[in-house]
Amino acid sequence: MRSASPHVTRQMRCMSTRLIFVLLMGIADPTGAVDESPASVSACFTPGMDCQGLIKTQIDQTRPGHHIYVQAYSFTSSPLAQALLHAHQRGVQIRILLDRSQVTEQYSSATFFARAKIPLAIDAQEAIAHNKVMIFPERTLLLTGSYNFTRAAQDRNAENLLLVSGSVPLIQDYLENFTTHWRHSQPYHGH
User: Rounded CA gap, 98 and 109, in Å?
Assistant: First the structure.
């Protein structure tokens, strides 16, 4: 196995350190100043907790004109797909990035989103687009973890979901990553 270059390793350590700092100490701006209101972090675990309901509530609370950015390896949850459709219909700006497997997956929501005219792209540049992320930038809210947006994640799997609220730098990092992947992804309009 090839080791990462010193630059990449240093960059990864800096990102890890920044994430830990943001989560534990509060919000840092580029000048190094710390906002006195720390980020709020909570977790949801399956089995046993209603992570799907929690995600749906966050989608339902998003106002018209606001944005939701979704990156998903697998998206088969009908309740979450319906919540995103209703958000789209009430004027929430949504962009969805899915792994290439979702084009041929039997129960994928890719065609559902494409038919609803929700901007959707397939991220096929890497071997697997394994992200599980929802970004709500105007609400400074990030949802991420191992939790795929699937029925199995809610009903059968041991999964985790983090809700991070109030961390502007972290939201910016995730938005930059989303934008990078969106640029090299292919628009999907269904079969």
Answer: 9
Residues 6+ apart with CB under 8 A from 180: none
Report pTM: 0.80
Enumerate residues 6+ apart whose C-beta is below 8 A from 2.
none
In the block, tokens 């749906």 appear at 56
pLDDT in tens, 107-163: 678 999 999 999 999 998 889 999 999 999 999 999 999 999 999 999 999 999 999
Helix extents (H) in 136-191:
151-155, 168-184
Coil, helix or strand for 122?
Answer: strand
Of 94, 71, 91, 57, the C-alpha closest to 149 is 71
Give me the residues paired with residue 165 across strands: 40, 141
Residue 71: beta bridge partners? 97, 133
Q: At what angle do helices 78-89 and 51-60 cross, to 10 degrees?
A: 10
The one-character DSSP state at 77 is: -
What single-letter amino acid sits at 31?
T
